[in-house]
Amino acid sequence: MATAWKRALVVGASSGMGEAVARQLAQQGCQVALVARREEELARIAAEINAAAGATLAHTYPHDVREYECVPALFQQIAHDLGGLDLVIYAAGVMPRLADEEYSFDKDKLMFEVNTLGAIAWLNEAAQRFARAQEGTIVGISSVAGDRGRRGQPAYCASKAALNCYLESLRNRVGRYGVAVVTVKPGPVDTPMTRGLDKLPLLIPAEKAAAAILAAARRRAHTAYIPGVWRPIMAMIRAIPSFLFKKLNI
Amino acid sequence: MAIPRPISLNQSAPERAALRDQNNGATAALADRRATAALPPPLPADRLERVEAWGMNTSVLAYVYRPSTAEGIREVFEIARRHGRKVGLRGAGRSYGDASLLAENICLDLTRMNRILAWNPATGIIKAEPGVTIRQLWQYVIGDGWWPPVVSGTMFVSLGGAASMNIHGKNNFKAGPIGNHILEFELLLPTGEIKVCSRQQNSDLFHAAIGGFGMLGCFVSITLQLKKVYSGLLQIHAFSTRNFADIFREFEARMDRADYLVGWIDCFARGKALGRGLVHQANYLQPGEDLNPAQTLRVENQELPDTLFGVVPKSIMWRFLKPFARNWGMRLINWAKYKAGSTLGNHKTYRQSHAGFAFLLDYVPNWKFVYKPGGLIQYQSFVPAENAERCFTAQLELCHAWGIIPYLGVFKRHKWDEFWMSHAVDGYSFALDFPVTARNRQRLWELAARLNEMVLENGGRFYFAKDSTLDGKSAAAYLGEERLRQFFALKRACDPENLLQTELSKRLFGDR
């Protein structure tokens, strides 16, 4: 199962890592349900995937992850359309620009809605299903930003920290039924979300990140830093005492 | 502050979006927001269960409902309509392949409809619900001197499943399939109507629904004529046969005087010994032959023993057999069985209980676990008598040539029957158990496709209860276009919304 997914669901598939993951899954012959807000983008990506495969592997489901009440029905519909589900990847995420002195509850709320609550809405469904199936892989794309409260993006860091904790709980909850829950913590990845930002260390292309995400899912990793060098870096950053950390502009 | 209003999928997408914003007091922060189009409401997630083929070679997730009344079945059809789902009927789940599976839809499990509705010990006519098992049935009637006229190799099949698949037993050449003994049934159509069917009333539906693999409606009662027996024992004659020619000769010679005939084949033997095996012939005892029928007809004198040699619990036997579940192990077991049967056990005659003779598959509980984790398929084909020896010889030789050797082979005699989708021929069947592994799966299916070609070239047929490997073209080739046209015209009349489906029906007839 871990090496031959047949049916996958990618939430946040219209750009960035979600799109790259979906394309790579389809290249491996996996059927993919593409979920994202932007219908035209989804249609374009699906058409490209299907043309390359010479078969209908990609199916589109336009959806705003903040429509939580729609998720159970849509999740079931996707499982029905694909004839089952082996892998669910939550890759939706937003990080609106925040000026140095800016405090915007609207932006903060949006980040929690998309990065955290949307993930909970979708992955609750996945966990419930996979626990009953006694198999399946859940991947949550979080961020290294969730490891420490940085001054630049309080709500983004908090939304990812909450996601990390949620994914860990989920792993502890359904791991005993044979379900893998993988927390992915990428460093900066070249995606529409990060374009225009300066000072991005160790930036990698989305395709490279996607390959690493699928590799981590395949080996049923608990937590995967992408690229791997972020693991020791974040271990060091987490070890910095608060009184020192608040003086550093990290 | 405004009171939040409930949001549901019955509302249009823009309504939902507006309500959510209104409830949250939020502004639309995403410029390009789109709401999901209206979808059918979700089924309860706690109905979701893994439903497995008996051969463990495939499984699906489905929303399982277990009604206990006809009204309950109607409700399930309604739920399916409301939620935009199809319904797959499932009895005891004893079909080896995907005949009772339907992924991501509703599995209508009939095991709770398991009441005996009427029993007349004077005439031997019994009316029962579809979830009643053969086990329930024989235990209910044997004390009165009756036995089910047709039973499968396991007693755990349901009557509804048995009728849907039109099962046969080791007496098929004499008694025909179970459908031959069904006097009447009530079929609940997906439209909600109940049709009473017999040879006289709704005769087409009678002959199509028996063996109709759950496509036309759901049996809610089945009335069956049982067989009078004068003893709880059968007279058995066991002997060995040296090869295919020998076993065919013996079967032809004994057909007239035997009530049951079954052959076991050592599939590992080759050359001149190809098709060697052991045969068991059984005959009913006539009145007066059993001096104490009241005793032998007692249920407790029929039960299979729980232990081997009185000590080893049979429930753990499969664990001892598991290490042998590979070619060398099965070659050894087949060889030892043949040698024992052809020397010590050759031409032995003895008496054995009905249950002991009939339910060979129940001797070692959970024996199929030997085939874990990939499971097994049983490849069974039915070939007219004049071509059977040639076909089965070629099949076994091909298995050897491909290096995929069946671990078990079973040989039976059959006769033609009147049912529309019948698997039976005036000829023989050869059932082959193959282990399924991640490594051999693709090649095994390729081999099965070659075996299918041989069967079709020889005018043979296949059995939905066993099938895992057939495709639509092959199914159409043996059933015939005219028959399929009739059957699916009847389906459209009984099930205009095409609510009843299974993975098997989609695989074989998905485009009809």
Structural commentary:
The complex is a heterodimer of chains A (250) and B (512). Chain A has 250 residues and is α/β, with parallel strands linked by helices. Helix content of chain A is 46%, strand content 16%. Chain A contains eight helices and nine strands. Chain A has a seven-stranded parallel β-sheet, with helices on both faces. In chain A, strands 7-8 form a two-stranded parallel ribbon. With 512 residues, chain B is of the alpha+beta class. Chain B is built from 16 helices and 21 strands. Chain B has an eight-stranded antiparallel β-sheet. In chain B, strands 5-6-10-8-9 form a five-stranded antiparallel β-sheet. Residues 1-10 and 23-35 of chain B have low confidence and may be disordered.
Write the layout of secondary structure elements.
The complex is a heterodimer of chains A (250) and B (512).
Chain A: E1 7-11, H1 16-27, E2 31-36, H2 39-53, E3 58-62, H3 71-82, E4 87-90, H4 105-133, E5 137-141, H5 154-174, E6 180-186, E7 189-190, E8 204-205, H6 206-218, E9 223-226, H7 230-239, H8 242-245
Parallel strand pairs in A: 1-2, 1-4, 2-3, 4-5, 5-6, 6-9, 7-8
Helix pairs in contact in A: 1-2, 1-6, 4-5
Chain B: H1 13-24, E1 48-52, E2 59-65, H2 70-82, E3 87-90, E4 106-109, E5 116-120, E6 125-128, H3 134-141, E7 146-147, H4 159-165, H5 172-175, E8 182-188, E9 194-198, H6 203-209, E10 218-225, E11 227-228, E12 233-241, H7 244-254, E13 260-265, E14 277-284, H8 293-296, E15 307-308, E16 312-313, H9 317-321, H10 327-342, E17 348-353, H11 354-358, E18 376-384, H12 385-402, E19 408-413, E20 427-435, H13 441-457, E21 461-462, H14 472-479, H15 481-494, H16 503-509
Parallel strand pairs in B: 2-4, 3-4
Antiparallel strand pairs in B: 1-2, 5-6, 6-10, 7-11, 8-9, 8-10, 12-14, 12-17, 13-14, 13-19, 15-16, 18-20, 18-21, 19-20
